[in-house]
Amino acid sequence: AAMGRTVVELFYDVVSPYSWLGFEVLCRYQHIWNIDLRFRPAFLGGIMQATGNKPPAMLPKRAEYMLKDIKRMAKYYQVPVKISEDDFQRVLGKSSLGAMRFITAIDMTQPQYLEPLSREFWIRFWSQEDISQPENILSVAGQAGISSEVAQKLLGIISSPAVQNRL
After folding, report:
1. Which of 15, 43, 112, 140 is most deeply buried (CB count within 10 A of its CB)?
2. What residues does the DSBA-like thioredoxin domain cover (predicted)?
3. What is the mean pLDDT of the chain?
4. Are 115 and 145 in contact (CB under 8 A)?
């Protein structure tokens, strides 16, 4: 890290609206706050399973608060998180694993695309698109400026032990 700069590691999964808010705020203010921001893609489903934790949306009182909280923060920070009670069921039924593996593969090979790619996955996921299908992952990659050759190649390695272990 540069002299006097604090390293901030952001562990995130595009399934998490709180991660998205944190991501956007840290990206926006990193130069003002003089931080060395490092993105660390992580698979929240795996963490929940390993720790025996439950997503807040599964606990009725927490879900109710989370709905208000995310809407308020999205408005305040101007981040386009659109969330409703229906999303909780959808989110619990959809996996971000393929997307997070693809993001990890980018992190390992073309880290300059990490920020736009992650943002695009969040936008798609929270506007109710299914980001688990290969063709949708490729579409997200294209939108983030990644060539189709590179995207196809990375899609081919998302199940490799190197990518899985890193994630």
Report:
1. 140
2. 7-165
3. 91
4. no
